[in-house]
Structure to design on (621 residues):
C-alpha cells in the first residue's frame, strides 16, 4: 500500500459542465492531497465529470475522498459523475457510494431542550438515590439474615479477604504510621520547645495518634488500597455479567459478595489502626530519645499517665466504623458500574472520592460526639 | 501471503498444536476451524504477533510480525470482543490508527472515518460510544477500525460469535464484499458452519486430541468427501452418540 502518486489534470470547462481527469494510483497516503486538489478542481459547475479512466489502483481512503466529493455535490444540488472507472476501481467506488454519509441527506439531529436536559439529569439523580437506598435496604436485610444465621455467612471468604485487605496491607500501614509519628514528633518538639514544654511531647503525640491520626491515616490507606480494589473487582464482575449469573443461580450478591467484604475490611481496620498507633508512638519515642535527649522511661511513663482506655478504644471504634464505610461504599459503587472498562474506571474513582469524603465527614461527626460525651 | 512451516503454538512453552504447515494465498478467505479449545484463537494470536511461536516459522508477506519497535501494521484485526476503546467514540476509534500512522490532516481523516463507518453501515454513529451499541454494531465498528489503514490482510476472530443469525449473515456479507470488492485477504477463526460454507475459500482444521491439523482444503470438499470421522463429525454436526446409532 505504498504511495505511488497520482496526477490531477487541469479541468476542461465546456458551457455549464466541467471535466476533470485523474491518473495514476490513489493511495491512503495521497488522500490529503487528493481532497485538497479536488476542492480546487471541481469548481461549482452544475455538471462535473470526474474521469477515472487512467486510475490504475485505488485504496479505500482515496475512495472515501471521492465519495465525499460526490456527496457534497449532491448536497449542493450539483451533479458529479465518475466516468471510465475500470473494474476494481468502479467496484470500490460503488461500495462507498452505496451509502451517503452527508449530513445534508440525514435526519437533522434533534437538539434536546434545556428543560428536558434538567429533567433527565434530575431523574438520573433520583434514580441514583433510589439505587443507593435499595442497596442499603438489601444490605440491611442481609445483615439481619447473617445475625440470625451466622453459619450462613461465608466465613472462608471473610478470612481470605481479611488476609488480602489486612495482612497484605501491614507493610504500607506500618510505614505510614512510622512516618506520621516521625512528622508529628518533630513538629511537636519544635513548637513545645518554644514554651519549654517539650516534656509534654509524649502526651501530645500519643493522644493525637491514637484518637485521630492513626484511625484516619489507616482508613485513607485502606480506601486507596482496598476500597479501589473492591470497587474495581465488583465493577468488573458487574460488566462481565458475573453478578447477574449469581442472581440466576439463586445466590444473593449481598450475601455472597458484599457482606464478606464489609466484615473483612471492618475487622482488619481496627487491627491495622492498632499497629499504626504502636509504630507511630514508637517513632515519637525514637525522636524523643535521639533528638531531644529525653529518657525512654520518662516518655513511656508520660504516655501511661496521659492515655486513657477511651482514647485508644475510641480510635479503634472509629476505625471499625471507617472500615464499614470503606467497604460499603466500594461495594455500592462497584455494583452500580455500567458500561465497559471505562465504567469500571469511573466506578473505582467514584468509590475512592466518595469514601474519602465520607471518612472526613464521619471523623468530624465523631469529634463532635466524643466532645459531647466527654470522651 | 502467509506462510507457516512446522509451526508449534501454545502457552508457557507447552504446545497445544504442532507441525502446522499451511499457506494463505493473496485474495482468499482462509478459515481456521476446529472445536472449542483446540487452539484456533492461539494460532491467530501467534500469526498477528501477540504470542510467540514455540517452534517453527511463519511469515506474512515475508515479515515475521511482533517484537521490535512499533511499526505501521500490515494487517487489520477484529477481536472476538471487538475490543473497541470504551473511552473513545466510534469516530475516534477509527481515526486513531490514521492519526498515528499517516500524515493526513484532520479534515481528511474525518472524511475517511465517516465513509469507513458508512461502509460498514454505521453512518450517523460517529459520535456514539461503544457501550451505546449492540454487539453486531460493535463488530462492524471493529471492522471499520481494522480497515482504517486499508490493509491488504484482515484477521477476524469469531466475527459471528454471539450475534443473531441475521446480523451474522450481514457480517458475512460485509466480509464477502471486502474480499471480493477490495481484494482483501481474510483469515477467519470460526466454527459457524453457515459462515464457513458461505464465505470460506479454503480452510485448515485443528484437532485438540491430535494436537495438529487434521484437514486442509475447500470447506465443501471436506464436508462432502472427507473420510476422517473427526472432520465428518465437525461438518455434519455429529456427536459420538449419533455416530454410534448411524
Amino acid at each position: 500500500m505504498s504511495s505511488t502518486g497520482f496526477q490531477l489534470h487541469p479541468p476542461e470547462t465546456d458551457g455549464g459542465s466541467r471535466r476533470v481527469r485523474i491518473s495514476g494510483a490513489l493511495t491512503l497516503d495521497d488522500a490529503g492531497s487528493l481532497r485538497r486538489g479536488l476542492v480546487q478542481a471541481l469548481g461549482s459547475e452544475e455538471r462535473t465529470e470526474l474521469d477515472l479512466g487512467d486510475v490504475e489502483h485505488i485504496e479505500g481512503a482515496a475512495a472515501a475522498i471521492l465519495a465525499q466529493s460526490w456527496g457534497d455535490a449532491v448536497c449542493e444540488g450539483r451533479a458529479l459523475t465518475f466516468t471510465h472507472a475500470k473494474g476494481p476501481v468502479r467496484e470500490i467506488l460503488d461500495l462507498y457510494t452505496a451509502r451517503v454519509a452527508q449530513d445534508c441527506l440525514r435526519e437533522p439531529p434533534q437538539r434536546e431542550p434545556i428543560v428536558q436536559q434538567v429533567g433527565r439529569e434530575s431523574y438520573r439523580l433520583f434514580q441514583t438515590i433510589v439505587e443507593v437506598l435499595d442497596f442499603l435496604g438489601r444490605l440491611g436485610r442481609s445483615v439481619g439474615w447473617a445475625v440470625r444465621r451466622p453459619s450462613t455467612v461465608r466465613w472462608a471468604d471473610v478470612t481470605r479477604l481479611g488476609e488480602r485487605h489486612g495482612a497484605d496491607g501491614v507493610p504500607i500501614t506500618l510505614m505510614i504510621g512510622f512516618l506520621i509519628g516521625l512528622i508529628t514528633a518533630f513538629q511537636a518538639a519544635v513548637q513545645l520547645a518554644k514554651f519549654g514544654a517539650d516534656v509534654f511531647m509524649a502526651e501530645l503525640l500519643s493522644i493525637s495518634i491514637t484518637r485521630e491520626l492513626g484511625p484516619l491515616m489507616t482508613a485513607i490507606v485502606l480506601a486507596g488500597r482496598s476500597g479501589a480494589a473492591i470497587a474495581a473487582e465488583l465493577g468488573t464482575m458487574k460488566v462481565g455479567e458475573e453478578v447477574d449469573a449469581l442472581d440466576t443461580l439463586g445466590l444473593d450478591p449481598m450475601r455472597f459478595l458484599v457482606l464478606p467484604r464489609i466484615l473483612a475490611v471492618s475487622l482488619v481496620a481496627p487491627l491495622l489502626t492498632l499497629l499504626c498507633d504502636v509504630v507511630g508512638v514508637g517513632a515519637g519515642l525514637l525522636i524523643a530519645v535521639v533528638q531531644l535527649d529525653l529518657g525512654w522511661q520518662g516518655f513511656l511513663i508520660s504516655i501511661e499517665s496521659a492515655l486513657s482506655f477511651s482514647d485508644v478504644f475510641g480510635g479503634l471504634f472509629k476505625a471499625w466504623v471507617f472500615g464499614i464505610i470503606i467497604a460499603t461504599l466500594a461495594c455500592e459503587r462497584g455494583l452500580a458500574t455500567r458500561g465497559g472498562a471505562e465504567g469500571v474506571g469511573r466506578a473505582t474513582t467514584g468509590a475512592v472520592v466518595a469514601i474519602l469524603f465520607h471518612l472526613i465527614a464521619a471523623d468530624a461527626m465523631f469529634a463532635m460526639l466524643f466532645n459531647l460525651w466527654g470522651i | 501471503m502467509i506462510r507457516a512451516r512446522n509451526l508449534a503454538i501454545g502457552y508457557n512453552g507447552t504446545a497445544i498444536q504442532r507441525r502446522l504447515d499451511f499457506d494463505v494465498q493473496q485474495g482468499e478467505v482462509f478459515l481456521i476451524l476446529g472445536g472449542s479449545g483446540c487452539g484456533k484463537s492461539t494460532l491467530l494470536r501467534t500469526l498477528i504477533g501477540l504470542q510467540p511461536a514455540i517452534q517453527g516459522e511463519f511469515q506474512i508477506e515475508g515479515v515475521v510480525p511482533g517484537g521490535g519497535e512499533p511499526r505501521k501494521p500490515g494487517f487489520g484485526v477484529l477481536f472476538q470482543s471487538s475490543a473497541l476503546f470504551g473511552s473513545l467514540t466510534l469516530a475516534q476509534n477509527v481515526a486513531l490508527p490514521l492519526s498515528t500512522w499517516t500524515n493526513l490532516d484532520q479534515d481528511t481523516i474525518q472524511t475517511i472515518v465517516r465513509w469507513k463507518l458508512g461502509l460498514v453501515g454505521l453512518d450517523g454513529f460517529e459520535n456514539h460510544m461503544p457501550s451505546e451499541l449492540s454487539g453486531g454494531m460493535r463488530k462492524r465498528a471493529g471492522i471499520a477500525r481494522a480497515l482504517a489503514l486499508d490493509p491488504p490482510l484482515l484477521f477476524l476472530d469469531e466475527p459471528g460469535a454471539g450475534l443473531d443469525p441475521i446480523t451474522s449473515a450481514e457480517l458475512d456479507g460485509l466480509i464477502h464484499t471486502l474480499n471480493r470488492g477490495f481484494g482483501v485477504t481474510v483469515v477467519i477463526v470460526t466454527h459457524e458452519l453457515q459462515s464457513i460454507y458461505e464465505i470460506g475459500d479454503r480452510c485448515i482444521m485443528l484437532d485438540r486430541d491430535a494436537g495438529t491439523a487434521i484437514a486442509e482444503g475447500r470447506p465443501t470438499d471436506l464436508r462432502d468427501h472427507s473420510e476422517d470421522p473427526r472432520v465428518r463429525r465437525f461438518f455434519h454436526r455429529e456427536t459420538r452418540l449419533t455416530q454410534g446409532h448411524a
About this structure: The CA atoms of residues 45 and 99 of chain B lie 25 Å apart. The mean pLDDT of chain B is 86. The longest helix of chain B spans residues 165-182. Chain B has one domain: 2-245.
